[in-house]
Design a protein that fits this description.
Elements (H helix, E strand, L loop, with lengths): L25 H8 L8 E8 L3 E7 L5 E5 L11 H13 L12 E6 L15 E8 L4 E2 L2 H8 L9 E5 L4 H8 L13 E8 L2 E9 L10 H4 L11
């Protein structure tokens, strides 16, 4: 049986370490980063891009929450240790997440237990949701709705460094700072731009720091033992 992919790739902004991924068109990119291209009614929200594993929570049979990878497979059955850790975390956390999701919704976030390419001194939970995707059309909920849904769960969203008109990447990086807002020991991975209009997410794009090496701390790349983040002490 075919696996339903739960979350696709976000396009890159110009200047991002884009690798083989798709890059946003110049016209759409200007809507994010060029103040001269601002549209009345647009709100540009810039958040820190975190460096972990993209995972998802869905409502399964009997209303129970299920931990899955972005590609749709059950995290608890993965050969990847980090994914199995996410499934175990969800089993322990399900009570505090009761009622969080409606049928057909997907909560997507960054799972930070296993160190990938950026080390953090985290002061919050290891799961950081960044998108709530609703219905078969996969419509993104606005950031304020996601934040409101998470109230009382103890789960954060990626830090917001700017909210307003389009902002250049250099200026947003200055607001992000040398170590970001989530306790990065290494330089932060990058930024995610969301353009919202009248409560609708009309555009999303990312910028990854040039020189960033994906998975540099993973054992298969470093030749060393795996490193792990811990939540708040």
């Amino acid at each position: 049986m075919a696996i339903l992919r739960l979350y696709g790739s976000i396009p890159h902004l110009p200047g991002s370490r884009a690798a083989a991924d798709r890059t946003l068109s110049p016209t759409l990119a200007r809507r994010c980063i060029d103040a001269g291209a601002a549209r009345e009614g647009d709100e540009v929200i810039v958040q820190e891009k975190l460096d972990g594993s993209c995972v998802a929570i869905v409502t399964g049979a009997g209303g129970r929450l299920e931990a899955r990878g972005r590609e749709g497979r059950l995290a608890g059955e993965s050969r990847n240790e980090g994914r199995r850790m996410f499934a175990a975390w969800l089993a322990e956390s399900e009570a505090r997440l009761e009622g969080l999701l409606r049928d057909g919704e997907v909560l997507v976030g960054e799972w930070l237990a296993l160190v990938h390419g950026t080390r953090y001194e985290l002061a919050h939970d290891l799961f950081v949701p960044f998108d709530l995707v609703c219905g078969p059309e996969r419509v993104r909920a606005p950031l304020d709705e996601l934040t409101a849904r998470l109230a009382g769960t103890g789960l954060p969203v990626p830090a917001v460094v700017h909210r307003g008109p389009p902002i250049a990447i250099d200026a947003a990086c200055t607001l992000l700072g040398e170590h970001g807002k989530h306790g990065a020991i290494d330089p932060p991975e990058g930024l995610v731009y969301r353009v919202e209009r009248a409560g609708v997410v009309v555009l999303i794009a990312k910028w990854v720091r040039p020189g960033k090496v994906d998975g540099s701390y993973l054992p298969e790349n470093s030749g060393c033992e795996a490193l792990y983040h811990r939540g708040p002490r």
